[in-house]
Amino acid sequence: MPPKRLSRDDYRVGWICPLEVEQIAAMEMLDEEHETLPQPRSDTNIYNLGSINNHNIVIAGLPKAGNCPAATVITQMKMTFPNLKYGLLVEIGGGVPVKTDQGMIRLGHVVVSEPTGVHSGAIQYDHGKARRGKFERTGFVDSPPTALLNAAREVSVQRQRMDHDPIWKNTQRIDTSHRHLRRFKFPGVTNDHLYTPDYEHRQAGVSCEDGGCDPKQRIERPIDDDNEPFVIVHRGTIASGELVIKDAKKRNSLAREHGVLCFEMEAAGALAGFPCMVIRGISDYCDSHKNDAWHGYAAAVAAAYARQLFFHMSIEEAVRNPNLMPHIFKLPFDLSEISPVPHFVARQDELEQMHEVLKGPVGRRTAILHGLGGIGKTQLAIAYIRRHCSEYAAAIWLDARDEMALKQSIARTAERIRHQSPSFPYLSCAIENRDLDEIVEAVKRWLDEPANDRWIVAYDNYDHPRFVSSSTSGRLVHSKGIGLKREVQGDEEGADCKAFDIRPFLPTTDHGSIIVTTRSSAVNFGLSIKLGKLKDVGACLDILALTSRRKSFKEDPASIELVRRLDGFPLAMATAGAYLDQVAISCSEYLELYQESWLQLHEEAPQLLSYDQTLYSTWGISYRYIEQQSPIAAMLLRQWAYFSNEDLWYELLKDGGPDEAEWLRELTDTKLRFHGIMRILCGHGLVEADLATEKPESAGYSVHGCVHSWMIHVLNQEHDKEMALTAMRCIGSHVPTEAQSKFWVTQKRLVGHADRCVEIISNMEVEDERAWALHSLGILYSDQGRFQKAEAMYQRALEGKEKAWG
To answer: Which class in CATH covers the domain with range 8-199+237-314?
Structure first.
């Protein structure tokens, strides 16, 4: 039977084990072990999960002994498991051979922290300050939580009324007949030796017997003749410090001064801000004679006592807590990041294929929509989710064109989840920290929740894959333009600055449905559905009719010839239809324009693929008409090649500065003028208006990735330095300060444009008077945690200044 899988919110108790031997003993005490859960990238702890008597427990070790490591581990644990109520620090320790109500403390006994007198149950004996020539201790720590103190008291009461010892019985859960568990056996009282405080161990690194320690220096103590197995438990003050005590005289001095029963090294760190009880199995007497002989058994009895506490702790409190809100796993499909077509036509076979892949009742299902750019992958994915939205409680659309875009898209999804259901503290905490990596982990955790098993997530435009295990390489398509078009097939080092591995961004759970749209055949972690050209002439004519708002195509031979020439590419037909909607010409006349555009493009860029030539020819027709209609709109299309294809907005272009070109000043003269120009481009189907959102500035406009490639490779066949510098000025001038309202939102909008700008100017000399823009880009990258890029920008800015100063 597979281990149970719970949510990180379901765990209430943390169990800390500084040593490996203590962690093994703790694991043996569990009634059941649970499946490991994903955790934030910032959390470096390793957790073992399980339960005892229906209490869900998180077990963690320490990288090394000490108060500081304990504090670090517990801090990370509390962030990952936000509903932890208290903790148990269960380990071995050095005992003080003094007498308590339970008799003399001996090896194999247990000491539990409990408030006594002026002490809270644990003290930090080496923390204080010198005052008037005397050391004054200031290391006070919090008392154990009341629930654990009550449980400890109840364990004591019930044990005295029973005819057997449940703690001893718990130690028998460790099968010491197994070779690797033999060290947990009881060594026997005859191996419990206490030497006089003045007598030092004779030979370091070997036992007292082998080292020649004098048996006459041992303190004779009575041995209990009762052979009935019983674990002695003492409750009182435990001393915590940074150093191991191996000095019997110092042990006795500190014990007399503070009334302590045991010494250890982690309690002060663990108890700082976390309600915790310290439980120690006595393995030595804090003298020079200490050795490892009792480590295993001492760890076993400490863990056995901790286990018994769970049978005397309330398990009803969390259920009755009115502050815990019910978890709601519901998220309606939101299309604010994309522009769906009003009426989706054709692709019925592909829709049925997708349903066959994604409809399974159990396990995670993944469909990879693979095909050329502009072939209709995105619209097919939208159509599928719309058609089957009733089958899913949550539907999420993510922009996967590059790693930063994906992180930002996930961050927007996190905001939507929190707005829909604010009962996930780990999600709220990540959003408030504004750490993109933490937010990604929080959303993945939300998707991994066992009760959240009816979701579908679409990762759109994952066209730049990089897989470490792949041996295939990418293919570059060169042009005379300002960039390179790459069809990425694998992990060729340095081949594509946008390439990344999407798999760390996928949920790890075995439920839910995933759609990935990509141009790359290297994406193979799901069932691939290849989209080819549309072969149904009727469907092609429907697209032309819908986008042109004309109805007479099916009777027009020229329209049939046009869709044949457009070769079944939906994006090309949509562009042609948008042109026919704007211009009063027939399909025959458009065919003539298309032929002229195709021949011209074939002469200027013969290296382009045939499908690129088909798309670029249709856009070329629209571009020449736009040049006549509005030269400013045509210049904007050229300038756009130097920005990202996503989210170009008014205020960004307005910040071009006094050196901006005349056409740009006219474009941004007023918002009305700017949006009027954008409407012209939207009318031709080249640009899409982003849906209005709660942004501190205007909503933006975007272009399809294929259209952006056309801008780069055709409209800008030669690099235009002035346009590159214009983009750099606009972006650099618009980097906000932290004093500005919602500055982080503006920064996120700028990052894609900054990446495109840096890509263009990487081999371009930037004059010293423009070095300020490079410095601004450095600030932007630094605020986003991209320190390597920030350093590169700062360095270039400095070099520009140094060159100017000579």
So the answer is: alpha beta
